Predict the structure.
Amino acid sequence: MLYTIIPYELVFQKCDEIKDNYIETNIEGKTFILEKEDDKYKIIRMYSTNPNDYLKTKYAPGTTIDFKKNQIVL
Amino acid sequence: MGTLKNEDLPVQTGTALQQNIQSFGQTNLPNFESSIHCLTIIGQIEGHMILPPQNKTTKYEHIIPQLVAIEENPQIKGLLILLNTVGGDVEAGLAIAEMISSLSKPTVSIVLGGGHSIGVPLAVSSNYSFIVPSATMTIHPIRMTGLVIGVPQTFDYFNKMQDRIVEFVIRNSRIKRDAFMNLMLKIGELANDVGTILVGKEAVDYGLIDEVGGVSEAIEKLRQLIKEKENR
């Protein structure tokens, strides 16, 4: 049950467009939402309560990670 | 973290600006560990249902483990909660609110932009709450659309759900039940709906929020609460 000011029709407008190239993963102890682009991954969102994590550019949204180059250790 | 070496950084394929920053080298961040952590609750509160992608959401499966980690981590002394939410799942919202209100560490919340619907119990769940002058809070009854089978039963069920929210809000703020119910059932404030919009100071006047203020006031209050807790 939702308790929101947004009408139900707007909340459920695009039910069939749920993206399947989004991956939720844990990197360096923080949860990330990554978007797969070929063999690279773009950071969409980071979940952390540590305000300092948001100052680090390597975690910034839009940054691409190439796991083959091991820049970020899983 | 020591010095951030260039090879530690991921390959930037972003804008020219990003590349510029990279090639000029960037200033190292001071090695400073904050004893205050912050929890941002934004968009819709996503609970039992995954919402379609046009909704920006905060998921309770992310928030609840973070709250446990905050409670457990001895380096974290206090929690700042930043709210800008349009509401969302009743049970997920109440679950997060109960988690925050039962944390042993000092908590301070700030309502920025909006703290509507289920954002109201979230805003009052902290030890001390702030609202910025421009933020709004909408208080309205729970609604539903679609086919209803068994009208009296549905009505009872909705009343019970609403009661859980109202009860939480009066338990965690200075507002009286009558005053809160009056705001919730007010006619003429919202277009095509029942309820009230409280802007900044109004929320404080009704006793829902403790004080009008922003980040500096909130951090100051949090430091004061941390100090009080340590001296106890």
